Every structure is written in structure tokens, then in C-alpha cells.
Amino acid sequence: MWRLSRVGYKAGRAGYILEEFRVKRQEHEKTLRQARRDRQLVSKRLLVNEDEDQQVHIMHTCSDKNDVISLFHKLQHSGPEREAHLKTLSKSLRDLSAQLLFIKQENSIHMLVGFLTGPNTQCRLQSVRCLHELSHSPHPSVGPACLPATPYLLTYLSGQSTKFTELCLYTLGNLCPDSDVVREKLLAQGIIPALASCIEKQKHNTAVVEAIGYTLSQLLQTKDASEKIIPLVLASSLPSHLIACLTPDQNFSLGPAIECAWCLHYLTSTKNVFCCDLLRSGEDNHALLACGALLRCSTLLASLGGAVAQGNKEEGIELLVCPLLRLTSRLGPLWPERVPGSSIISQILRVLANVAHKKKEFCLQLADHGLLSSLSATLKMAERETVTLSLDILFMLLTSGSQVVEDFERQGGNSLLETFQYCSEGDVRRKAAYLLERCLLSSSAQCMLCCIAGQLHPFVLTASRIGNATLSTKTAKTQLRKEKYASHFIKRTRITFKCITPTALVRMKRFG
Amino acid sequence: MLQPTSFPTSLGDRDKPDCTTEDILQDEENPFNFSPQLINLHKDHELFEDGDVERHMYLQDLYISEADDDKQTLSVSEFACHISGCNAVHGTLEEYEHHYNSLHRHVCSICRRSLPTARLLDIHIQEWHDSVFMVLAQRQDMYQCLVEGCAHKFRTSTLRKDHLIRIHKYPPDFRFDKAKREKGSGETKQQQDIAMEVVGNASEVLCEEQAKQVDQEESMEMPVSLTGTHLTEKDTPHEEMAACQNTNDEHLKPRYSYRVPSNVCFGHGSIRGFRGHRGRRK
Lengths: 512, 282
What we know:
A: 0% strand; B: mainly alpha; 5 strands
């Protein structure tokens, strides 16, 4: 189906004892929860070289502070070791005290900007790394010190060097939450058109798309985003690119999808921009976008649900499912009541049930995009809630069109439902039986009638062909052999007659 | 721009079932009674706490490796940039890729300046090397704002610079917005000009000759991207090469694309292509 790119989340880090890691993580989690309650939940991302030492958490000693100053002086003078010095500087700047010391040096940022725009491209790369380290600083005065570099970082977003562009993006993304002043400046310098232009040019590069998603998500989380930023983003081409990133095709990659899903979530969470009024309006561009987004999210959720049901334990799926669930519900716009302790599959199914319930066309689209095969997987799961919800959704799909019925039967749906005949849960048993009797057998009985009638009278056979004949005679004969089907056939004759085309009906009536 | 074309444009509803569905939905024996629940939740609701925290843990714990894991980095010995005139040397393919993409992608073939993006290159060519532009600029606003997405145009580059500083909060010494230089006569003045330019804007790449001289004065390395022959005093400058010695627009020949590589010669003065032939005739 699709490849999940490797996400390093929860990967154990070299040098850490597992217990120590767990304790640290718990503390970290507690801090974040408190930060969220205080409405102060803000994060930054650090891009490191794969050849660098993983133990970046180790505190630097005092000697590094002096290193920074000496490096700065060395860089101000000429010399061919400039690249190496800049590289060392970027590593030293990981330490907070070194950062503070550096920005206090006169012309330090100006020097970095000089290298950033200079003719030596390795120096450009190392200087953007230095700026990236500074942007990642937790101290509130360090980020804003990087402001002189922002017009250049934004210009480079339309450049051709993808690795460089990625670093520029993460640096800008880290600067976004720092202060109002920083954000005002970035907006004035055209960060949103720059991001739109970047994603248009680089949409096939998953690393760059992930970086764009991250930067945009940082912009969208700020408290004044709804007035200043969201309208600009919605007016640009960014939303359609974000939605396009959520296609579960062969090139699907988890990292970019996570970022894009969160961006779309932030776009819709502050105001009811994609609310049901817009959905009803039909003509509006937002309505189309919302419709497309809703279906794209639902189909992706269905794929993910199916993958999890089949035992795919890839790291990072929950990171994508969470924003998708919220987004789909909001686009719906029905938020499912959360049953405590319900599994991730149940949550997905609940949201999909809402979507399917909303419109028949959604059912057809969801079925087209593989929801039936996902349901075949979820129906086999042990959890009662999952099975019940799967049956509910299946009912909605099967009653939306005959093509869905045929597809389901072709996939072996009949035999799957038959397994529920001996289920201990009465509710499940009744629902499965109902589906078998009413939704599936009605179509097969209908075809049986055509075939039988066709054998009796050639003219009726013609009529039946005009009516419909989706099952072969052989299948119909096999069905006939089973007694219980015969009784159903007799009972439902009236209904099946109604399903044949009027022309055929007239002819059949004539010939009894 | 992508539009979801495969999705329904008319938003129908559930009121038109086919005959079987109608039967089923009205059937009293139907055990299916799913109905969605509507709950309005603010984004800061505690129900969302777990998901939000998980998201931020991911952002803060995640260390992304810059190179793809599957990609095998080819180890090669040091090699030089193949653009003649460029002295850069690289140890890895990635380094070279970055160098090439940054410096050799958007180069003005007249004055050899390297611009960072296609858009800035287009603006540069238009404003520096297009006489039609010059003519039009006397009558209407032709100088575009450099910020992508801003549609403003201005009568002069100074007005544009003013706009960049006031509205877009750009620095006054923005390195990708050099004003077109006035005519410079004589080498010394040009050297000074270029020296000043190097101090102010080291991102522009100039001819080898000047670069070498400058190198002694300035510590910044100056790679070159001069293709083909480099000028000596004896050669008659071609149209394309003219700006090398003379960074202004005195010799404008606007009737062809300025992106044509300089080793293709048109028009008078193209001694290079016929040198051998003339020699033989004599």
C-alpha cells in the first residue's frame, strides 16, 4: 500500500539507560501537560547531522564559552579554515550560555549573515546551521537576535538547494513562536507567499514538505493566528497542497502527512471556516476544499485503520491519526462522543461512521477508496465496539449503492458475515443476519429470478438482460441448492421485481 | 493549483435512496440505529490534552537525520566544480550538489552574477540588461517589489527600496537588491567599485580577473563562473562579455535572450568563431 518512512520517535538514544530515559520522559510529559494548561505549549525542532554525536543533551562545560568568543574572532579574520571554524561554532552554539554570549558580541549576527549570502556555499551551509542552533534556543532574547537574517532565509526558500532550504525552513519555524515582533516581521516579509511558492516547487521532496508543514504549523498555533494568519493562508494555494499530502498512495510518507494534518487541524480549529454552512453552499471554493479535505482525511483514516487492524505496528501512526480524527470530525462537523477506554480503531470507526452517515456520496467515495477492505479487517477484531461500529458502517455503505454490494460480495463479504451467525453477542448476530438477508441476498435473489425466468421463456431472458444480470447462471444455481435461500427467494419476490427495470417488468408481467 | 476534481461537486444528501434502501430503512426489524452525536468542543478542551502533549513530545524528542537512511553516500575523492572558472572543490557529492544549486543555477549570462532564485534573476535581467525596460520605465512604474506575493511596482529602484524597508521591514543593505551601477571608466575605478561591492554584497559572482585582484584585498573567497575565454586587453569584447569589464549597461543589445550561453556567438565582433579561417586565408 504505502511505505511508512522511518520516524525516529521513541527510538532509544545511545548512552541512555532505559530506566533513566523513561523517568526523564515522564518528567518531560508532566512539564508539557502543565504548559498546555497554562496555554504555553510551544515547541521547537532541531535538525542534527546523522554523523553527529547523538548525545546532544550533555551540558557543555565553561570552556566552550571561551571557545565561542575565540571562534568569533578567528572568523572575523581571513583564512581558509573558515568552514571548519563555522562548523565548530555551530556545535558550540548548542549550549545556552554560549548562545547568549555570542549574540552579545558586536556584529556577530551581521557576520553570520555575511557568510549566509557569501560565495562559499559550505560557509553558507554552516552559517545557516549556526542560525538554526540559535533559533532553537529556549531563551526569549536569542531568537529575536536572528531577525536580520530572515529576509535572506525567506529568499532562499525559492532556491534550488533542498538541504539548505530545509534548514532555512526549520530555522524560520523555530523563530515563529518567539514573539509578536518576530511574527509581524515575518509576515511583512512575505513568509506565507514564500511558503506557498516553496511547496509548489518542492512538493515531491518529502523532507522539504515536512519542513514546510512544520513551519506553517508553528505560525498557525500562535494566539493571534485566527485574525492575521489564517485568512492569508486560506487565500493562498497552501491548503490544497496540504490536503494533497494526505493521499494514501505509494509515495505516502508519514512525516510530511503528520505536519500537514496538524496544519489543517489548526486551520479549522479556531473558527468554523469549514463549517456545515460552507459545505451547503456548494459554489464556494472553501466548500469544495472542505469536501475534498473531508474525503481525503476519511480515506486516509480508513487506510490507517485497516493497516492497524492488520497488525501494522509502525511507530508514529497515532501521531497522524490524532489530528486526522479531529480534522475529520470538525469538517463533519460532528465530534463523536468519546467512550472512555475506546481503542484507536474504534475512534477512527466512529468518525468514519459520522462521515458515512452524513452523505450518501461520501459512502460511495469511501467505498471506492478501499474502506470495504479495511472493514473486512476490522470485522475480524476481537473488540465488540469495533465490530459493532464496523457493521454500522457496512450497513450504510451497502445501502448506498449496488456497486458497493457487488464489490463487497466479490471480496468474500458474504462468508465473513456468515461467521457472525454463531456470535455470542445478540446485537452483532442480528445485524450481520440483517445485512445478509436484506442487503446482500436481495441482489443475488434478484439475479436468480432473472436467470430462472430466462430459462422459462426466451423473451423474459431478454427482459432480464435488459433489467440486470450481474451474477452468472452458475452462481444462481449454487444459491438455489441451499434451502433457506429458496424460502427467502419466495418471500422477496415482490421486492426483487421492483428492482428490475420498468421495461423488463412490463414484459415479465405479460408473460406471467 | 491542485483541486480535488474526483470528489462530488454537488452535495446531495440521503433523501434519494433506491427502492431496496427505502424498504430497508422503513423496515421495523432493522437493527441498525446509528446516529452521530454532536458535541461542541473548544480547542483547549482537556479532551485534546493527550493528543497535544503527544504531538509536542514528538517535536521535542525527535532527532531527524538529515540524509536518508536508504541512500548510500557515495564516497568520492575530492573533485572540482566543472563550471570553468569556478575554483570550488568538494569532498562529497552532496556538497557539490549544494554548491551547484546555490551558485550556478540562476546565473546571468551577461554579467555573470549569480542570483539565489529564478525570480530574482528575471528581475535582474529585466532591470539591468533590457533596454525596452529602460524605455518603459520612463513612463510607467516598472520596478517590481522583490517580495513574492507583493504586486507593487515603482517608478525607480530607490522608491522600491524605500517600500522594502518601510513595508516589508527589509534591511537597508539587502544584498540582493543592488542598484544598477553608473558608468565606470577605467580599471582602477572599476576595481574600487567592485571592491566596494564585494564588501557589501559578496553573493554576486564576478569575473576572474577582478576576483583575483580583489582576493588580495579582501579575505572572502570569490569563486568564478566565467565560461569560455576570459578577456585580455586585446580581445574585442563580445556583447555577452561586455559587462565583465564594464558592469553597466552601455552596450545593450536587447534583441536576443540573455540566457544564451556565452560560447554561442552572434553578430559582429565574433572573432572567436572565425579566427582559424581568417588566419588561413592570409
